[in-house]
Design a protein that fits this description.
Blueprint (H helix, E strand, L loop, with lengths): L1 H13 L1 H7 L4 H14 L13 E6 L14 H16 L3 E3 L9 H10 L3 H18 L15 H15 L1 E4 L4 E4 H11 L16 H6 L2 H9 L4 E11 L4 E3 L4 E2 L2 E2 L7 E10 L5 H6 L8 H11 L1 E11 L5 E6 L10 E4 L5 H5 L2 H15 L3 H6 L7 E8 L6 E6 L11 E4 L5 H9 L36 H14 L3 E7 L4 E2 L12 E4 L2 E4 L3 H5 L30 H4 L7 E3 L7 H4 L2 H4 L12 H7 L4 E5 L6 H14 L12 E4 L2 E11 L4 E3 L9 E6 L4 E2 L2 E2 L1 H7 L7 E3 L9 E5 L11 H8 L1 H10 L7 E2 L5 H15 E2 L3 E2 L8 H19 L3 H17 L5 H11 L4 H10 L23 E8 L2 E9 L4 H10 L1 H7 L6 E5 L3 E5 L1
Parallel strand pairs: 1-2, 1-21, 12-14, 21-22, 23-30, 24-28, 33-36
Antiparallel strand pairs: 3-4, 5-6, 5-9, 7-8, 9-17, 10-11, 10-13, 10-16, 12-15, 13-14, 18-19, 18-20, 23-24, 23-25, 23-29, 26-27, 31-32, 33-34, 35-36
Helix pairs in contact: 3-31, 5-6, 25-26, 26-27, 26-29, 27-29, 28-29, 28-30, 30-31
The chain binds one RNA strand through α1, β5, α12, α15 and β17.
RNA sequence: GCGGGUGUGGUGAAAUUGGUAGACACGCUAGACUUAGGAUCUAGUGCUGCGAGGCUUGGGGGUUCGAGUCCCUCCACCCGCACCA
C-alpha cells in the first residue's frame, strides 16, 4: 500500500512539467517559489518603525532536541503565524520572532553518552529546526533570532542575575532597590525597619552593623539579596557521583544504571521570588489570560491567611513555631508533627527514641515530595519522645515527625487537630493517639469534621462561637501573651537557581575565602580578574561531575581556580534552564545591541507581548519566573512595564498515536489485533509511519529492522494485518513521531497548516492522525479551480458580482475576522470550505469576489494565496495587502426561517420577517396545518416568540 | 493527594453563550465520468422503527416553555506538582 503510494507520488513528480502547462495546483513548485521570494526580498524583516502602531506576537521558543520537530510543535506556531499575518494585513508593525532555548540537560546527557560537545550538537539541532520551521512557511524575522547559549545573549542573562544579586526587596516601598541603599540604611539605623525575609529573628543596630567584619556584613546582606545563596535538597546518587534531576530519578532509583539515590543538602543559589508573591498574585487581575491559567498560578502562589503560633517545649528552651489557617481549633490540638528535616528533630529527640527516629529519617530520605504527598493511604511517622506545652491550657502534647509535613512549606511543623483535619485524623487513628472532639455532634468519631460551618465546642472561652469569631478570639488571646500573631503564608517557594551541570550559563561569581562576590565588585577588580561580562563557558572535553557533586566546571582547574595562590575560586554551578527563557522576549526587541540588553527606545516601543502562544505545561514555571524578572527589571528602572505577557493563548498538546503488533511468545510470528486473544503474545511498538490507519505495511516492517526480516504474519480474514493503537506522548522512543517535513512534501505546507488548524480548537489536546488531511487538500484544489482552469489557465473575469456572490463574500469576511480575533481557527477553515463550495455552485470566477478571498486566506495558506494574488496581476506581496473589510449591507438578512416547536419539540419551519410582530406571528403559526395537527384544536397555554431565534407553542 | 482540564455519530468536530444538536470534514455505501484512479462530480449516511413517530451530547437527579450549555451528584480519561524544557 505504502509503496504504491510512493510510486504514485513519484509519478506525479515526474509529471511536474506537464502539470505546469495544464495549470493544476502544483503546490511543491508554488511553495518553493514563494519561499524563495520571501527570503530574497526579506519580506518578513521587521523594523523598529516607531511611527506605526505595533503588535507583538510571541511563540514559546523551542528547546532544539535531537529528535527534531514533530507535528505537535507547529500547532501553536501556525496559530500565532496566522494571527501575526492577520495583524500585519490590518496595518500593524508586527514583531513575530523566533529563537532557541538552547541550554539544557538533554544536550549534556547526549554529550556524556557520545562525547560530542553540546555546542556542536545544539548547533546541528538548531539548523535542522530552522529548516523544518521554514518548510512550513512561517513569517519569522530570522534577523532577530536569539539563542540562549550564545555568549552575546547569556552575557545579558548574567547581567540581569547581577542586578538581582545587587538588589533587595523594600517591603514598605513594595519594590526592589539597590543593595547599596540598604547598606546606607544599616549604617544609620541598623535593620529595625527592615527585617530580613530569610531570618526574622535577625536584629542589629547601626553601631553593631559597623562593628561587623566584612564577611559578617556580606553574610547578612545575603539574607536580603534577590539572588542569594542558601541550602536546598537535591537528588544525590553516590554510585554515579552526581546530582540528578527529578526526571533522572525513576521509581526511586537513577534512570541511568538503576542506582540508589537519596536527598542531600547542598549550597545553592536562589531567586527570592517569594518577595513578589503578593504582586504576582494581585496583578494577575490585569492580565488577559484564561481563568484556569490564572487559577493555576493563584494556587501555586497559594496565599493563605491564618496565624503563626508558638508552642514551648517541655524540658527544653526551644519552641516549635507552626503556621495554621485554623487557629480556632487550638483546643483540639492532640499532637504536633515536625517535618523529618526540621532542625529541631535532632535537638529534641529523647535518647530512647533516637534509634527509631534515625531509622525513619533514612526512610524519608529515599522518598520524593510527590510520593510523600500522594500516598496518604499508608500513614507513617515516628514519636520523638518530646512534649510541647499547649499555649492556652498548658497540657503536654506529644511531638511526632512524619513525611506528610514538608520542610519547605510554612514553618515545617504543624499543630495536629485530628477532629478537624483528615490527615491528622488518619494519623491519630493509626497511632492510637486520643482525639479531642471540639465540634460536638458534628464530629462522628470516624471522619474529621473539616467544614467551616457550625460552632466550636469544648474549647474554653471560644466554645459556642462560630469559626470566624473563634479565630479572632484565639489570635487576640495568644497575641496578648506573645504566643501568636496574624500572618499570611504563601505556598510559593524561592526558586532554586543552581544546577550542578556544564551546559548552562556560568555564574558571574567568584569566591574569595569562600565569600561570594560578583565579578563587577571592587574586591574582584582588585585581584586583577576581568570584571566584564560575559563570563564565558569554557570548552571542555569531559562532562563528568566534579568532586562532591560539584558541576563539571569544577574539573576545569585553571578556570575554576584562576588565582590558586590567594584562594580565589569561581562558582562552578551553572544557571537552570529557565534563566535564559525568563527574559528572551526583551532581547528580540533589539537583538544586536552590545551595550545594553535592549535599548530604552526599543523596549518602550515594543513594550509588552500582545499575544503569547504556548502550552499549559509552562503554567507555573516559566510564566511565573518571567513575570518576576519583568517586575524586578521594572522596579530597577530598566523597563517601564511590569508584566511581560498581556494576552496568553494556550495551545493543546498533540499526542502521538502509537501502533502495536503482537508477537506470539517464543516465535517470530505476529498476530493481527483481532486474533491476538487466541495466542499468548507480547505487545511491541512499531513505527507509526509503517502503518496506514491501523493496517500494517508488512513488507515495510520486514525491512524496518533485521529482527523482522523473516517475520511471519497471522493476518485477519481479509489477508490484512491490523495493529493495535494507543494514545501516548509523541516521542522517538515510542516510534510514534510524525515529521512535518513528510506531510509538507506529500501535501504542501498550506495543506499542513490548514489541517493542523482544522483538527479542532487550538487549546484542545488531541492525538495526531494524518487521516482527514485529504479533505483539506481537496479543498485547496477546489479553491484553485475557482481561479484557474487546468487546461486553459486563469479564468478570472472582471464581471460585476451579483448580490448573492457579494453576500457570500461579505459574510465570509465577517466570520473570518471575528473567528481570528477569537482564535477559533478551526471554524475559519470550515468557513473557507463553505465559501468555496458556495462559489463553486454559483460558478463564480469574478475578480471582485476572488481577489479579496485570496487576501482573506493568506494568513492561513500564504503560498497559494501569494500565487493567486499574482495570477490576478498584482505586484509586490500579499503579505502587505490590506485585509478585506465587510459591508454590513451584505451580511444582514431581513427574514428568518424559524423553527416552530410544540412543547419544545421542533415540528416545522416557518419564515417571518425579522421585524414581524408577535400577534401576527402567533396568528400565522396557529393557522399552519402541521401545527394545527399537533395542537389538535386545543388553545395554546402559552405562546413563546423569541425574535430571531425560535417559536414555541405550549399546550 | 493537591491543582487544572476534557467527555457530543464509526472518526476529528460545530452549535451567535439557554433557543432547529451533529455545520464543515474524514470514513463508509451507491452511482456518473474515465484506458485507469486514492482525480473529479452526484446522492445517501446519529441510533431505532415498515411507518406516523420515538430515542440521542459520560451516568443519575434538578431548574426552565425550552438544557450539550445553568445547578447538584457520581464516573472515566488527560496534563502539571517546584532540578525536563
Amino acid at each position: 500500500m505504502h509503496i504504491i503510494r510512493k510510486i504514485l507520488v513519484n509519478f506525479a513528480a515526474l509529471n511536474h512539467q506537464t502539470a505546469t502547462q495544464t495549470m493544476e495546483y502544483n503546490f511543491l513548485e508554488i511553495e518553493q517559489k514563494w519561499k524563495k521570494y520571501w527570503t530574497d526580498h526579506k519580506v518578513y524583516k521587521v523594523n523598529n518603525d516607531f511611527n506605526k502602531p505595533k503588535y507583538y506576537v510571541l511563540d514559546m521558543f523551542p528547546y532544539p532536541s535531537g529528535a527534531g520537530l514533530h507535528v505537535g510543535h507547529p500547532l501553536g506556531y501556525i496559530a500565532s503565524d496566522i494571527f501575526a499575518r492577520f495583524k500585519r494585513n490590518c496595518g500593524y508593525n508586527v514583531l513575530h520572532p523566533m529563537g532557541f532555548d538552547a541550554f539544557g540537560l538533554p544536550a549534556e546527557q547526549y554529550a556524556l553518552e557520545t562525547g560530542q560537545h553540546p555546542a556542536d550538537t545544539t548547533e546541528k539541532n538548531i539548523a535542522r529546526y530552522k529548516q523544518q520551521l521554514n518548510n512550513i512557511g512561517f513569517s519569522f524575522d530570522w534577523d532577530r533570532e536569539v539563542r540562549t547559549s550564545d555568549a552575546s545573549y547569556y552575557k545579558w542573562t548574567q547581567w540581569i542575575f547581577l542586578r538581582l544579586f545587587h538588589s533587595w526587596y523594600d517591603r514598605k516601598a513594595n519594590k526592589a532597590r539597590a543593595i547599596s541603599e540598604l547598606e546606607t540604611i544599616f549604617k544609620t539605623e541598623g535593620n529595625k525597619n527592615n527585617t530580613s525575609p530569610a531570618d526574622e529573628t535577625l536584629s542589629f543596630s547601626a553601631d553593631e552593623w559597623k562593628a561587623f567584619s566584612q564577611a559578617e556584613q556580606r553574610s547578612i546582606l545575603m539574607q536580603y539579596r534577590l539572588a542569594y545563596q542558601g541550602y536546598a535538597q537535591v537528588w544525590w546518587c553516590e554510585a554515579l557521583g552526581t546530582v540528578l534531576a527529578n526526571d533522572e530519578v525513576v521509581n526511586g532509583v537513577s534512570e541511568r544504571g538503576g542506582h540508589p539515590v537519596e536527598r542531600k543538602n547542598m549550597r545553592q543559589w536562589f531567586l527570592r521570588i517569594t518577595e513578589y508573591a503578593e504582586r504576582l498574585l494581585s496583578s494577575l487581575d490585569t492580565l488577559d489570560w484564561s481563568e484556569p491559567m490564572k487559577e493555576m498560578q493563584r494556587n501555586w502562589i497559594g496565599k493563605s491567611t491564618g496565624a503563626e503560633v508558638k508552642f514551648k517545649l517541655s524540658d527544653s528552651s526551644h519552641e516549635i513555631t507552626v503556621f495554621t489557617t485554623r487557629p480556632d481549633t487550638i483546643y483540639g490540638v492532640d499532637f504536633m508533627v515536625l517535618a523529618p528535616e526540621n532542625e529541631l528533630v535532632a535537638i529534641i529527640t529523647t535518647d530512647a527514641q533516637k534509634a527509631e527516629i534515625e531509622k525513619y529519617i533514612s526512610y524519608v530520605k529515599s522518598r520524593s515530595e510527590r510520593e510523600r504527598m500522594a500516598e496518604v493511604k499508608t500513614v507513617t511517622g515516628c514519636f520523638t519522645g518530646a512534649y510541647a506545652e499547649h499555649p492556652l491550657t498548658g497540657n503536654k502534647i506529644p511531638v511526632w515527625i512524619s513525611e506528610y509535613v514538608l520542610a519547605g512549606y510554612g514553618t515545617g511543623a504543624i499543630m495536629a487537630v485530628p477532629s478537624g483535619d483528615d490527615r491528622d485524623h488518619k494519623f491519630a487513628k493509626h497511632f492510637n493517639i486520643p482525639i479531642t472532639n471540639i465540634f460536638g455532634d458534628l464530629y462522628d468519631g470516624e471522619n474529621a469534621y473539616t467544614d467551616k460551618s457550625g460552632k466550636i465546642m469544648n474549647s474554653d472561652f471560644v466554645s459556642g462561637m462560630d469559626v470566624k469569631e473563634a479565630m479572632n478570639a484565639v489570635i487576640d488571646r495568644l497575641e496578648s501573651n506573645s504566643r501568636a500573631r496574624r500572618r499570611i503564608n504563601y505556598k510559593l517557594r524561592d526558586a532554586g537557581f543552581s544546577r550542578q551541570r556544564y551546559w548552562g550559563e556560568p555564574f558571574p561569581i567568584v569566591y574569595i575565602d569562600d565569600v561570594p562576590y560578583a565579578t563587577d565588585e571592587a574586591e574582584v577588580t582588585a585581584l586583577g580578574l576581568p570584571t566584564s561580562l560575559p563570563v564565558e563557558l569554557p570548552m571542555v572535553k569531559n562532562y563528568k561531575p566534579g568532586p562532591e557533586g560539584q558541576g563539571p566546571l569544577a574539573n576545569v582547574t585553571d578556570w575554576a581556580s584562576p588565582l590558586p595562590e590567594v584562594k580565589v575560586t569561581r562558582e562552578t554551578n551553572t544557571m537552570p534552564g529557565y534563566a535564559g527563557s525568563s527574559w528572551y522576549f526583551l532581547r528580540y526587541m533589539d537583538p544586536g545591541n552590545d551595550a545594553v540588553f535592549a535599548s530604552k527606545e526599543a523596549t518602550q516601543y515594543w513594550n509588552q507581548v500582545d499575544l503569547y502562544v504556548g502550552g499549559t505545561e509552562h503554567a507555573v514555571g516559566h510564566l511565573l519566573y518571567s513575570r518576576m524578572w519583568t517586575k524586578a527589571l521594572c522596579d530597577l528602572g530598566e523597563i517601564s512595564f511590569d508584566e511581560p505577557f498581556r494576552k496568553l493563548l494556550n495551545q493543546g498538546m498533540i499526542q502521538g498515536s502509537s501502533r502495536f503488533i503482537y508477537r506470539v511468545k517464543g516465535t517470530n510470528q505476529y498476530v493481527t489485533a483481532a486474533k491476538r486473544k487466541d495466542y499468548d503474545t507480547n505487545d511491541i511498538r512499531v513505527d507509526v509511519n509503517l502503518v496506514d490507519g491501523t493496517e500494517l505495511n508488512m513488507g515495510g516492517l520486514r525491512k524496518w529492522r533485521p529482527e523482522y526480516e523473516s517475520a511471519e504474519f497471522i493476518t485477519d480474514d481479509d489477508g490484512k494485518f491490523y495493529c493495535g493503537s494507543e494514545v501516548e506522548k509523541m516521542s522517538k522512543s515510542k516510534y510514534n513521531v510524525v515529521n512535518p517535513d513528510d506531510i509538507v512534501h506529500q501535501y504542501g505546507a498550506d495543506t499542513f497548516r490548514m489541517y493542523e488548524m482544522f483538527l479542532g480548537p487550538i487549546e484542545m489536546s488531541k492525538p495526531w492522525d494524518t487521516k482527514g488531511i485529504e479533505g483539506v487538500h481537496r479543498f485547496l484544489k477546489k479553491m484553485w479551480r475557482l481561479y484557474c482552469d487546468e487546461q486553459t489557465g486563469c479564468i478570472v473575469n472582471n464581471d460585476a458580482a451579483t448580490d448573492a456572490e457579494l453576500r457570500v463574500l461579505h459574510k465570509t469576511i465577517k466570520k473570518i475576522r471575528e473567528d481570528i480575533e477569537k482564535f477559533s481557527f478551526n471554524t475559519c477553515v470550515s468557513q473557507f470550505m463553505i465559501t468555496v463550495n458556495e462559489l463553486s455552485t454559483l460558478n463564480c470566477h469574478k475578480r471582485a469576489i476572488l481577489e479579496p478571498l485570496a487576501v482573506l486566506i493568506s494568513p492561513f495558506a500564504p503560498h497559494i494565496a501569494e500565487e493567486l494574488w499574482h495570477m490576478l496581476g498584482n505586484e509586490g506581496t500579499v503579505v502587505s495587502a490590506a485585509f478585506p473589510e465587510f459591508n454590513s449591507q451584505y451580511t444582514t438578512d431581513n427574514s428568518k426561517v424559524y423553527p416552530v416547536a410544540i412543547n419544545g419539540k421542533t415540528r416545522c419551519e416557518m419564515e417571518f420577517a425579522l421585524d414581524a410582530d408577535a400577534a401576527f406571528v402567533e396568528a400565522e403559526v396557529l393557522k399552519n396545518e402541521t401545527i394545527a395537527k399537533w395542537t389538535e384544536g386545543k388553545a395554546p397555554k402559552k405562546f413563546i416568540y423569541v425574535k430571531g431565534k425560535m417559536i414555541n407553542v405550549v399546550i
